[in-house]
Write a structure and sequence with these properties.
It is a single chain. The chain has 1173 residues and is of the alpha/beta class. The chain is built from 29 helices and 14 strands. It is 72% helix and 7% strand. Strands 7-11-12-3-13-14 form a six-stranded mixed β-sheet. Helix 5 packs across helix 26. The longest helix is centred in the last third of the chain and has 101 residues. It starts with a strand and ends with a strand.
Length: 1173
């Protein structure tokens, strides 16, 4: 795929800026000063392909909604896609007609490559180039990472992999204690142990169970009695409420029975009877009204009379009436046409007399009608005559001028001197120019040498642990292998990690001891918990006192130790105190058995923790001694260099800087050698130019090369100017002679044309009033009068035809009028035809109005007949309803029907009230049927119901009070019972809940750990797969490019294996492999660029090529390497389009020097415009 053009319609500071890419060229070099718009154009490429970002800095001139970029893409199949990109959320790609272009269509031209991959792989600037070189160094030359990084453009693979390992290590380490998962796993073990130690003590609550069950049973019995009494109370209340309802129902049934036999009528009898009665009365009145209206309408119809035949001719009369105005206009037109005809005849006679007075009659008019071909021939010949005369005179004047100019040129040619031979001078000058601007190159190389020297000095000054010179530093006997430093670093990390682990375990043991001691203090603060040791000591005192007392009883005197035991107090009192104290301690230990056990366990744990802590302290001392031994060996490693080393990581970085300084020193020495070669070349050029210039001009000894070149170029220019002037004069003379011959030939041709014109003129005017000797201008005037004559005659004939047509049209109109008068049997009074039509039209309108009125009366008569029929039907329907009601009620008059209706409605009211009372009784009957409720009420004495309710209420109050007392006692026992159960299990429950939380955290962190490890493994596997698939083809091509970019200071690339048996990328120089850390920054940049270009070549060979966008990647390359890089890019353009942005004029000059004009398109930025250079 390639760009054919890109038009920045409204983008950044550009408006309608067209960027056309030459279809015959694949390398487009865009150059211009900073701030000219290169960066804006560069951004527009990705915004066009992938759409504008949500926020953009390119809308400062054109608003967000007006941003537009247009372009045309074309793939290798010849398919083209033209669209305009606008800023928006959807449908942002539009075709030339403004219709949305699916993003899939655009993506197909990009091989469905996402924007990030396109930017990483096919866009490169000096920052990305430097990051790529640094990425190669960070990977240690890992082959897979190097290939993948260069091919994809992703320069952070090493940091990504390290970040995965770091995050995974922060979650879990096999022998670690600080990572989160390690802490959680330890805590889970502690909690499981705690749960196993906590078991419910059955003996602690059995004493409460009997009382608890007894109270529970008693409470149930009281509740059952209360429920029974409440049921009795509800029954009494229900019967008390129902008894009045039963009495009311009985009364209504008696009233219903008193009504007797009332026939059943419709429920809405009153409405039905009233409606039927009202309809019968209304229909009767309407029928009388309709009969009167019918009589009136028939009378009106008899008064209307219409002429017999007038309506039959309505269409014809109306058509004639529409033509009346035209007839009247035609009457007025006849005299006007006659006057016009006479006027045209007079004008015609006048013009004919001007031409030929003797033939000025209408009969001779056809003599003046010339054929069109003859007229056109006369006009054309009139035009040709002055042109032929003018051309003849012009050739005559130019011939005289040409003869004078030819004589002048011959004199100038004779005056020119002979030309010297400059072939040798040109050869020497070409050789000097091929060598380039040697003095400028020497100046630039000197500056480069100074710069490299400063870089070396700055690098040496920035190198820590060194204050000597660069020569001593380069020869310094430092450790030769980075792997040795890595080995020391690994040992130090291992020892430090072990020491930190031991120290962490010691700290945790201290925390465990403090926690156990704090638990003992907490138990003692609740109540002093005696230990077994204290109980044993008090019992020993008690037993000693008993032995003293027993000795006294047996021997009659105290033992010698008695005074020590009693300390001056009575022996019996002291003994009793010790007995009491021993008993109290034993009782306390029995009552607080659980706490005593907990305290004993805590004391045992403290002893165990202190033992482990002593072992770890010894292990710590051993590790500290090993660390001191490592420190000594590390110092000895650097002793030959007399350097007191820092940490291995810092010294590994120091070695890398040391290697870079050596590389910089090598570059500096190469530049010095190149400087000497340039000085030799400068001397050779001066000597050669001085020798050859002596034959042309005076040359002084030691004259600068630039002056010699300028003098040589001036001499060449002078000789070449003379040669050019001579060639120019000879060419001019030759051209003048050729032109003289051409003019003579042309003059002869014009003479022949003038003779031919005379013959054609004689033929054209033959048979006309135009004489042969008449000038063309006069002939044209006569020809115009001929045409005027014919125009007037044609107008005269046309007017005569119009007059005849109007007369005929009026006659036809009058015939039609007479025919209608006769057909309609209307009188004719001999008036004008227009007047007769107007009168007929008025009669027709009157007849039509009467006809419409008659039709309206007939429709009204039909409507009245329909109304009479409808009212008759309504009357009959009302009579049928009333007859039906009479039959249902068994009567024959309206008055009788109304009486029966009143009795029926009263019956319905009684029945409704009875149903309502029964429904109320059922609602309050607790599911009983109506008969069951009546039977229940019959069993009770209405007078004793209130007394029974009062007695039942008093018994309920007594039982409620008893139940309240039992519930209080039951609640207290139940609470104590549950508290004992909960107290025994709470520790285990809390520990279990915490363990569940720990399990959830372990599961979550384990999932994160697995994802990180899996991601690292997949990325490493993908990198290795890419290396295995692409190493050989990319390595070979990248090696060739690398050799060229380094100006063959390296021979190519190779893959070797490090101490970990990992494939690593190395440079090949002089048959030896050079690791990446032994290369300078510039060289690693060139290595990264070589891999990148080789990968793009391989991609283009296997896929649809995509444009390679390059932005000033050569800012840190010297001229020779820049030139070689441009050559490589030019070769790459044979398989893919390259768009190269730069603001360095030297790169443009280099490209023009190495590339043929047909290979590269140059586009220059000028302000807000881009022009082909």
């Amino acid at each position: 795929m390639r760009f054919d053009y890109l038009n920045l319609l409204a983008y950044g500071h550009f408006t309608d800026q067209m960027l056309s890419f030459d279809p015959e060229k694949n390398f487009h070099l865009l150059f211009g000063p900073n701030e000219a718009g290169k960066s804006t154009t560069l951004r527009s490429i990705t915004h066009f392909l992938y759409g504008f970002p949500q926020k953009t800095n390119d809308a400062f001139l054109h608003g967000n909604t007006k941003l537009r970029i247009e372009g045309l893409l074309r793939n290798t199949k010849g398919e083209a896609l033209q669209f305009t990109r606008r800023k928006g959320k959807k449908n942002t790609a539009l075709d030339p007609d403004g219709n949305p272009v699916p993003e899939n269509t655009v993506a197909a031209f990009l091989n469905h490559m996402p924007e990030s991959q396109f930017l990483n792989m096919f866009a490169l600037d000096h920052v990305r180039l430097r990051e790529g070189g640094e990425s190669l160094l960070e990977s240690g030359g890992n082959a897979g990472e190097s290939f993948f990084t260069a091919a994809s453009g992703i320069n952070v693979l090493r940091r990504v992999l390290e970040n995965f390992d770091k995050q995974a290590g922060a979650l879990y380490k096999k022998t670690g204690s600080v990572p989160e998962l390690n802490k959680l796993l330890k805590r889970e073990k502690e909690l499981s142990k705690k749960i196993n130690e906590q078991q419910l003590k059955v003996q602690a609550w059995k004493a409460f169970e009997a009382r608890y069950r007894e109270l529970e049973k008693e409470l149930g019995a009281l509740t059952a009695k209360i429920k029974t009494l409440r049921s009795q109370k509800e029954q009494l209340q229900r019967v008390k409420w129902i008894l009045p309802k039963i009495a009311n129902r009985k009364n209504l049934l008696q009233k219903l029975e008193a009504l007797g036999d009332v026939p059943d009528l419709p429920d809405n009898i009153a409405e039905v009877r009233a409606e039927a009665e009202n309809k019968w009365n209304a229909s009767r009145a309407n029928l009388d009204k309709i009969s009167r209206q019918l009589a009136g309408t028939e009378a009106e119809m008899k008064e209307i009379s219409i002429p017999e035949h007038i309506l039959e001719q309505a269409a014809a009369i109306t058509a004639l009436y529409r033509q009346v105005q035209q007839y009247e206009d035609d009457e007025k037109m006849l005299p006007e046409l006659e006057g016009k005809k006479q006027q045209l005849q007079a004008q015609l006679m006048s013009v004919m007399k001007e031409i030929d007075p003797g033939r000025a009659t209408v009969e001779n008019i056809e003599h003046y009608r010339l054929p069109s071909a003859q007229k056109e021939m006369i006009r054309e010949l009139c035009k040709q005559k002055p042109l032929l005369d003018q051309a003849y005179e012009s050739l005559k004047r130019e011939g005289e001028k040409l003869e004078k100019e030819l004589a002048k040129k011959l004199e100038e040619l004779a005056a020119l001197p002979d030309l010297p031979d400059v072939e040798k001078l040109e050869a020497v000058l070409t050789k000097v120019n091929r060598a380039g601007d040697v003095e400028a190159a020497i100046h630039e190389l000197a500056a480069e040498c100074r710069q490299k020297q400063r870089q070396v000095e700055e690098a040496v000054r920035a190198l820590p642990l060194w204050d000597g010179g660069v020569e001593e530093l380069v020869k310094l006997p430092v450790p030769g292998l980075e792997e040795t430093v890595k080995k020391f670093e690994k040992e130090a990390e291992q020892l430090t990690r072990q020491l930190d682990s031991v120290q962490s375990r010691i700290s945790r043991l201290k925390e465990d001891i403090e926690a156990s001691e704090e638990s003992i203090r907490r138990l003692d603060s609740i109540a002093e918990i005696p230990s077994e040791e204290k109980l044993s000591a008090v019992r020993a005192l008690r037993d000693a006192g008993w032995q003293l007392i027993r000795t006294k009883l047996e021997t009659g005197h105290w033992h010698e130790t008695a005074e020590t035991y009693t300390k001056g107090e009575p022996a019996a009192s002291v003994y009793e105190k010790h007995v009491l104290e021993a008993d109290q301690i034993a009782d306390t230990m029995r009552l607080e058995a659980e706490k005593v056990g907990e305290k004993n366990k805590l004391l045992a744990d403290i002893r165990k923790f202190r033992g482990k802590k002593e072992q770890l302290e010894k292990e710590k001392s051993g590790l500290e001694e090993a660390l001191r031994a490592w420190e000594s060996a590390w110092q000895n490693l650097w002793a030959p260099a007399q350097i007191r080393p820092l940490t291995p990581g810092e010294m590994r970085e120091w070695l890398q800087k040391h290697a870079q300084i050596k590389s910089l020193m090598q570059d500096y020495e190469k530049a010095q050698e190149k400087m000497r070669a340039l000085h030799d070349s400068h001397a050779d050029c001066c000597n050669a130019l001085s020798a050859v210039l002596k034959t042309f001009a005076a040359v002084s000894e030691g004259q600068p090369l630039a002056e010699l070149v300028s003098l040589a170029e001036n001499e060449l220019k002078r000789v070449r100017n003379l040669a050019a002037k001579k060639d120019s004069l000879e060419t001019a003379i030759r051209d003048l002679k050729e032109k003289r011959e051409e003019m003579q030939t042309e003059k002869a041709e014009i003479g022949k044309k003038r003779e031919a014109w005379l013959a054609n003129w004689s033929s054209a005017v033959a048979g006309t009033a135009i004489l042969e000797e008449v000038p063309p201008a006069v002939a044209e005037s006569l020809l115009a009068r001929y045409e005027t004559c014919m125009q007037l005659y044609d107008a005269y004939n046309q007017t005569e035809k119009e007059q005849q047509a109007v007369t005929e049209k009026m006659a036809r109109f009058e015939e039609k009028v007479q025919h209608i008068l006769e057909t309609a049997q209307l009188p004719s009074n001999g008036e004008n035809a227009a007047v007769a039509v107007s009168q007929m039209y008025q009669l027709l309108q009157n007849a039509q109005q009467d006809d419409a009125a008659l039709k309206k009366l007939k429709r009204r008569l039909e409507d009245l007949e329909n109304e009479r029929k409808e009212e008759t039907e309504a009357l009959e329907a009302a009579e049928a309803v009333l007859t039906e009601l009479f039959q249902q009620a068994g009567c024959s008059t309206i008055e009788e029907l109304k009486q029966i209706e009143t009795a029926f409605l009263l019956k319905k009211s009684f029945e409704k009230d009875i149903r309502q009372i029964e429904a109320d009784m059922l609602d309050a009957g607790a599911g009983k049927s109506l008969q069951e409720l009546l039977d229940e009420a019959a069993r009770f004495d209405a007078d004793s119901i209130d007394a029974d309710l009062a007695e039942t209420g008093r018994e309920l109050d007594r039982l409620e009070a008893s139940r309240s007392e039992v519930e209080q006692e039951y609640g207290a026992v139940k609470k104590e019972y549950e508290e004992q159960i909960r107290g025994a299990n709470m520790t285990a429950i809390e520990a279990g809940q915490e363990r569940e939380s720990v399990h959830a955290q372990i599961a979550s962190l384990t999932e994160q750990y697995i994802q990180l490890k899996l991601a690292a493994a997949l990325l490493q596997k993908g990198i290795e797969f890419y290396r295995s698939q692409n190493q050989n083809p990319i390595l070979n091509r990248a090696g060739d490019i690398f050799a060229r970019l380094t100006l063959h200071s390296f021979d190519g690339l190779a893959v070797d294996y490090n101490e970990q048996d990992e494939p690593v990328l190395m440079g090949v120089r002089g048959g030896e492999n050079v690791p990446l850390n032994g290369m300078s920054d510039g060289t690693t940049d060139q290595l990264y660029l070589s891999l990148r270009l080789a990968s793009i070549e391989k991609y283009a060979a296997e896929n649809e090529p995509l444009p390679f966008i390059v932005d000033d990647i050569l800012v840190h390359f010297d001229d020779e390497r820049s030139k070689e890089t441009l050559k490589v890019l030019l070769e790459l353009s044979s398989c893919t389009q390259i768009i190269f942005f730069t603001h360095h004029q030297r790169l443009v000059d280099m490209m023009q020097e190495i590339a043929p004009p047909e290979a590269v398109q140059y586009l220059a930025f000028h302000g807000q415009k881009i022009a082909v250079h």
